[in-house]
Amino acid sequence: MGSIGDAAPGTPGNPAKAPAHELVYQRLRSQILFGEMAPGQAVTIQGLAESLAAGMTPVREAIRRLISDGALVFQGNRRVSVPLLTAADAEQLIYVRKSIESELARRATSRMRPADLVRLDGIDRAVDAAISAGDVTGYLQRNYEFHAAIYAVADASIMADLADRLWLRFGPSLRVVCGRFGTQNLPDRHKDMLAALGRGDAEAAARAMRQDVEQGMQMVAGVLTGAGGEE
Amino acid sequence: MGSIGDAAPGTPGNPAKAPAHELVYQRLRSQILFGEMAPGQAVTIQGLAESLAAGMTPVREAIRRLISDGALVFQGNRRVSVPLLTAADAEQLIYVRKSIESELARRATSRMRPADLVRLDGIDRAVDAAISAGDVTGYLQRNYEFHAAIYAVADASIMADLADRLWLRFGPSLRVVCGRFGTQNLPDRHKDMLAALGRGDAEAAARAMRQDVEQGMQMVAGVLTGAGGEE
DNA sequence: TCCGGCAGAATATGATCAAATTTTTCGGGG
DNA sequence: CCCCGAAAAATTTGATCATATTCTGCCGGA
């Protein structure tokens, strides 16, 4: 096939072939997933369009997708905001996450290749570094990266898709938890998980994943039940 | 302030609450869920806009949501189509559905009120009537209605949301199954489920749900593996 | 077989309309 | 004289449409 090098001289400053609404979606997704938007915060189409230097329609598309993801909620009238997690929501998330993500870990075990293990180990070291440095955003990003890498190996697109969606729901609250408790006390079952994956013990990997999810979500649930309402 | 109930927007007299893109979304959702669109069928924005007598923008929004739901797939270039389920997909759906929907049945049991049981019984009779009449569409609609009614009682919005999304994925294929095997041989654990719900036996209800899901999805998986030769 | 134009469809923009929230003002009561 | 509440205007924001632009896929000619 021919070289892809035709830079389209007629279009100024548009070398990337990524659709605008996709870029906006990825951008907003990261902002929500890593807690750059606070729970309960209202989002406006025009405000986002201006802050992201994008048109109104792509922002609209992205918001629509995020609402479908559960990352944003449609407030009855036509207001959109970052959802506030309730204790009941957190409890449901605990069950579903344990069920799906432990199964993903189980499936990933037999498919894990040495190169994957090396990559996971590197990510885990980055997680530890972020924890030591008190870098909340870095921890959230790396921790997600660690889980996402495992799920990619599991080769189960539907389950990985569902897991991704769940992360979008508790992402903002997880940031609040880290802000309250700091990064030092965060649970980290990654070592157990890596060991289990390394020796091909699927059940142990699934168990470690369950514990990791359980501990992380219990902190979220604790914040939601303990502190009634902040403004 | 906290998010007060979304049932009453507060404005007195709100009958005209019909956003166009929401209507288009619900319409397309039903069409996919009940098999009015065949797996693999391509959909175009302009074609849908014309067939639904709607503008282009609302159709665009609805398609975006449905893609995020997994009810439609984005074919790499800018083509959109109804997804073809693979055997691996079906196998994942079996696991996740059994996990989530059995838990929903378990939670619904203690919350089930007599009026809910009466309603469920009525829906189940409609299911039986559709089966006897060989009414495939009616069966699909009523069967979904039966499950949705149970999940509504469970009062677990996140899990019910996930279950809804899963139904969108296998809906088109389920129609194919019914078209191949007819409605007579369909599994129906609804009687067991109703009995368990009636006597408040959560574990039995969950078990019946697992069996209902298992049997239905095994038929889908069977069709996909048996005749899964096309690309 | 390969290259270039052609058609069709999706993406993206801006304007315009409608709805809801907010603010301001006016009237009544303490 | 001041405070409170309600109603209406104004602003802000979301929804929709018409239109231009760009890209993909296809077809015909060299």
Main attributes?
homodimer; 231 residues; mainly alpha; Arc Repressor Mutant, subunit A; Four Helix Bundle (Hemerythrin (Met), subunit A); 2 domains; 9 helices; globular; DNA-binding
Q: What would your notes on this structure say?
A:
2 copies of one chain form a homodimer. The first copy, chain A, is mostly helical and 231 residues long. Chain A has 2 domains: 20-81, Orthogonal Bundle (Arc Repressor Mutant, subunit A); 87-226, Up-down Bundle (Four Helix Bundle (Hemerythrin (Met), subunit A)), CATH 1.20.120. The first copy, chain A, has helices at 20-33, 45-51, 56-69, 87-111, 114-133, 136-154, 157-181, 190-198, 202-226, and strands at residues 42-43, 73-74, 80-81. Chain A has a 3-stranded antiparallel beta sheet with strand order 1-3-2. In chain A, a hairpin with a 5-residue loop joins strand 2 and strand 3 (80-81). In chain A, helix 1 packs across helix 3 (56-69), helix 4 (87-111) packs antiparallel against helix 9 and helix 8 (190-198) runs antiparallel to helix 9 (202-226). The A-B interface holds A 21, 40, 57, 60-61, 64-65, 67-70, 75-78, 84, 88-89, 92-93, 95-96, 99-100, 103, 155-159, 161-162, 165, 169, 229, 231 and B 1-3, 6, 9, 19, 21, 57, 60-61, 64-65, 67-70, 88-89, 92-93, 95-96, 99-100, 103, 155-159, 161-162, 165, 169. The structure holds a DNA duplex (30 and 30 nucleotides).
